[in-house]
Amino acid sequence: MSERPYVTLSCAMSIDGCLDSTAPQRLAMSNTSDLDRVDEVRAQNDAIMVGASTVRRDNPRLLVRDPDRRARRVAEGKPWSPAKVTVTSTGDLPPDAHFFTTGESPRFVYCPGGMAHSLRDLLGERATVVGVGEQVTMAAVLEDLASEQGVRSLMVEGGGTVLTQFLEEDLADELHLVIAPFFVGEPRAPRAFGAGSFPWTASRRARLAGSAQIGDVVLLRYALSDRVGMLDGERSLPEAGWRPVPYRVP
């Protein structure tokens, strides 16, 4: 079995734990400076992952935006933007989504084995479809990414179901949690994390590895494995006057 990729979970939520509202338009939880930080984290990973519901609702491009970061990746012999990864249990993926039509990096879709053939017919050359048993688990996805696709580091950007699965399976190394300064207050709004049996409880607390005020939002960086210390020792993120702080995955 290959060593699993280093996994960073990235999430921006309201004070009351919502990823979005129920309105048709996307509710911005972050700000320009924090989006620049996210761009830096993207640039330092081999792949970026979102769930199929995020592909459908948010239609993200999942690309590195900054030209200097793109150039740095190319100079390191990498594609200018990381590979894209999504998972689906239903096969409901729009072939014309930005996920499939923007950028030049590889795209991977993980699904139950029984629907792999139909998804390949639907997506054609837009993505590599990988069937992983009767039910998709994050452990199976990480194993294939490591052993077959050469992915050493993965950034997971949501949504709540995918984030919850990684946490429940204890497969994350760190969590970047951004809190926006407002409440959504809608009972049916999508939540950052669902109910589950998590490894971190009142008797086993996650370690706060750093924090920073980034304009009007706050970033909390939690260490969820003993591999986090391999990134940058015990360095704390700046408390104010935020600028992106590069740090490398092992």
Automatic annotation (TrEMBL):
Annotated InterPro entries: DHFR-like_dom_sf, RibDG_C, Riboflavin_Biosynth_HTPR
Keyword flag S-adenosyl-L-methionine: no
Chain positions covered by the region annotation Disordered: 73-92
Molecular function via GO: 5-amino-6-(5-phosphoribosylamino)uracil reductase activity
Superkingdom of the organism of origin: Bacteria
GO biological process, one term: riboflavin biosynthetic process
Annotated ranges, domain Bacterial bifunctional deaminase-reductase C-terminal: 5-219
Gene3D superfamilies from the UniProt entry: Dihydrofolate Reductase, subunit A (3.40.430.10)
The protein, known as: 5-amino-6-(5-phosphoribosylamino)uracil reductase
Origin species: Microbacterium immunditiarum
